[in-house]
Amino acid sequence: MEAGSSLSHKSEETEAQGDTVCTEVKEHDAEATNPEDGIREAVAEEAQNDECEGSVCSTEEEVVPDEEKDASSDKELSDSASTDNTLEDSSEFSGRPLVVCEKKELCSPFGADLVSSHREEDVTAESWRMHRKHVFVLSEAGKPIYSRYGNEEALSSTMGVMMALVSFVQSGNNIIHSIYSDDHKVVFLQRGPLVLVSVSRTLQSEIQLHSELLYVYYQIISMLTQASVARIFERKKNYDLRRLLTGSEKILDNLLNLIDSDPSFLLGAVQCLPLSSSLRESLSQILQKATTSNLVFSILIAKNQLVTIVQERTVIDDTRLDPVDLHLLLNLIRASSAFQAGEVWTPICLPRFNPNGYFYAYISYLDPDCTVCLLLLSTDREAFYSISDCKKKIEESMATHNSIQAISSALQSHSYSISLLGVPDLRHFMYKPLDIPENHKQLTQLTSPEVEAPYCSEEEKVRLFDLYRYLHSRIHSTTRPLRLIYHVAEKETLLAWVTRKFELYTCFSPLVTKASAINAITKLLRWIKKEEDRLFIRNPPKYTTASNTSRGSRSSRGGSDRVDSIDNGFLTLL
Questions:
Q1: 529: exposed, middle or buried (Cβ count in 10 Å: 0-12, 13-18, 19+)
Q2: N or C: which end of the chain has fewer CB within 10 A?
Q3: pLDDT tens for residues 197-246?
Q4: Which residue stretches of 413-560 are H helix?
Q5: Is 444 in contact with 432 (CB distance < 8 Å)?
Q6: Nearest to 515 by CA among 499, 491, 495, 490
Q7: What are phi and psi of 501, to 5 degrees?
Q8: pTM above 0.85, yes or no
Q9: Of all helices (H) and strands (E), which one includes residue 66?
Q10: CA 526 to CA 515: how far, in whole Å?
Q11: How many Å apart are CA 215 and CA 223, to the nearest integer?
């Protein structure tokens, strides 16, 4: 159920609203043979990206939260479930993934240094109300779990009102999706026992805000697993989930900051570090040669950009790593300085791959400046030392080939300059290829140059990204999707175009004509085609490990139903 008023849509095929010209979808048009004709006719059908769910990661193990040692509470829990399924008091469990660092001592990636400066913000102040976007997470019982700004305890009454709205609509066998006011949009998302709410003053669409809430939900699930969260609230509906998420607020804060600035989240794709195809292939071969049993993913990252990824062969046969899962991994690494301490071993759930299971992630930086990071995912919780040996082999090979210095040279320029294209009037663009052979099952990727003048200030960058969001919402509208948008704004002209082969958003100087923009896009597409081996991972490499040959067996998933104390130097999250 949607409360309040929503934006209406006209029914004409071609719309002229203000200075924006939009061409609507034409179901049976044939795709043009060249970009110029294609833009003029706005043709081709939308590519459908199938999502494949996999089951290679290990079986999810049961959460043992740190309950208060209250006799009446213990009795309530023991009466409501069998001995094997009750929540247990455990002084060892703190709700954080404990990891093994270089000195083999226990540490946590969610330390005290992750406390956000927004946690103590006064929720009664006008500055708190003036934030562009608030995000709240609460339980079905109305218990506060997370707030982007302000302390959750101070917002308990506000979250209670939100839950009352959800419950009132549910009492009529309906679901509340959104509420619209003059200058605010409130979007609700309920997933199991968790309720997520976004209160936004931006021009983002309901679908975009819904997608952002999903990211927040997936980040929480990546730390706890979906089945564990459901089980906890099934046994105790008023459980305070903050006990298990203590210290992880910075992870969620950083995620929301990235969502507001990184086009990867908007387009649902991963940005690769531009590298020569020979260097990327050499790095892939190094990862391919350093394997051990139950190693499933080998990922090399440089400053939050993907360098290369190698998957176990049977994983590629089953499914591919979803961009959402990789975004969550990158955010986890980026948000915590604890991963710079040495070798880190921690359980992690990939919600889009398997929301009820987890991998064991080995994380280690390969250079003193902590810019090049190695991420190895295994299904075996006992594999720390064998995975560490793989890292040593990778380090030795990279030192032999001088790979770190080559990556550092590529990182000197965060991406690449728009001036390299030699396209007049083009200021910026975002390009996402869609013509990926299904048998490759590779990550969805995008490319985008550095944001340069006149978008140097933070305010101007936000304004440009808001324009991209507007175009994206029109292209992907559920009521009236478009293929082509030519939009003349106050300070720039933008053109968005989606075909069966790509999704493209471009920004030009304000005086560019439509004909000039079409010619510029033709040159841009030719340049991307010429540079695609440098910009994208075209042929994802793979390897075979002996222990993953029987994918359907329990042993190939590498997990057990419960967690016991572990003597090899680490404790698991679940």
A1: exposed
A2: N
A3: 999 999 999 999 999 999 999 999 999 999 999 999 999 999 999 999 98
A4: 458-475, 514-535, 554-557
A5: yes
A6: 495
A7: -105, -25
A8: no
A9: none
A10: 17
A11: 13
